């Protein structure tokens, strides 16, 4: 029988991801966690229904769900500036946000259902789906529904948010210098003759009466056998 408290989110934006390393908020226990921004245009009936079932499991059918703290919160209330005005440019605006966490390692996969091991692949602003489980809590008189994070699938890249990845080509474009064209080395320079030509070992300046290709060394025997003589068959 399926657990009706476990449900998949619609495609959403992930922010503040901590999926590969545990982090702690203040004095709380370190956990894997993330916040998910779900557009208000998305249908989240399945999420609300899973929350309701979780409340029934904790307190019974007669519980007043209106008095419980919901994990599905209005992002517009989060997108308020210092003057108390709603900031429409805030990434919370226009979204329902859901924070979920786990004590245990979280499976993270791509659209091909292949495991993602590189933490840089999951950044604030990329598009994901999350598999979550809701449960009721009653702590020091505070009652509500919380979300456990079970798995994450990256759907697509997105615009970085917060401490997400940056594009250095965009950040430093105003300071970029034109790349110089290739210039051959100065063969008369001291550095060139001291270091030698790459691939030919250490070089020296050839005298006026010397043959530059005559190194006065006997031919080398090939490794692993005697030198072949004229008429020898090749031993492939």
List the helices and strands and how they pair.
Elements: E1 6-8, E2 12-23, E3 31-39, H1 45-59, E4 73-74, H2 75-78, E5 95-102, E6 108-109, E7 127-139, E8 142-156, H3 168-171, H4 190-195
Supply database-style keywords:
236 residues, alpha+beta, 4 helices, 8 strands, 12% helix, disordered C terminus
Task: Summarize this entry quickly.
Helix content is 12%, strand content 27%. It has four helices and eight strands, in the order βββαβαββββαα.
Bin the helical content. Answer: 10-25%
Record field, number of beta strands: 8
Indicate the low-confidence ranges by residue numbers. 199-203, 217-236
Q: Helix count, per DSSP?
A: 4
Gyration radius from CA atoms, angstroms = 33 Å
User: What is the 3D form?
Assistant: elongated
The biggest beta sheet is recorded as: 8 strands, mixed
Global mean pLDDT: 83
The fraction of residues in strands falls at 25-35%
Give the termini distance in whole angstroms: 67 Å
Order of helices and strands: EEEHEHEEEEHH
Q: How would you classify the helix and strand content by structural class?
A: alpha+beta
């Amino acid at each position: 029988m399926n657990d009706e408290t476990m449900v998949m989110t619609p495609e959403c934006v992930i922010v503040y991801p901590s999926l590969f390393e545990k982090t702690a908020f203040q004095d709380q226990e370190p956990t894997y966690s993330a916040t998910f921004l779900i557009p208000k245009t998305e249908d989240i009936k399945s999420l609300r229904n899973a929350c309701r079932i979780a409340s029934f499991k904790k307190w019974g059918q007669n519980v007043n769900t209106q008095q419980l703290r919901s994990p599905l919160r209005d992002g517009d209330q989060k997108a308020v500036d210092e003057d108390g005005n709603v900031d429409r440019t805030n990434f919370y605006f226009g979204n329902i946000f859901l924070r979920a966490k786990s004590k245990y390692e979280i499976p993270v996969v791509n659209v091909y259902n292949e495991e993602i091991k590189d933490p840089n692949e999951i950044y604030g602003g990329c598009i994901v789906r999350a598999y979550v489980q809701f449960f009721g809590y009653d702590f020091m008189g505070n009652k509500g529904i919380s979300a456990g994070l079970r798995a994450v699938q990256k759907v697509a890249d997105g615009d970085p948010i917060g401490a997400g990845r940056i594009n250095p080509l965009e950040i430093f474009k105003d300071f970029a210098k034109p790349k110089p064209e290739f210039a051959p080395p100065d063969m008369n320079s001291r550095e060139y003759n001291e270091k030698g030509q790459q691939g030919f070992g250490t070089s020296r300046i050839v005298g006026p009466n010397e043959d530059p290709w005559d190194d006065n060394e006997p031919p080398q025997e090939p490794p692993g056998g005697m030198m072949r003589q004229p008429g020898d068959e090749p031993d492939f």
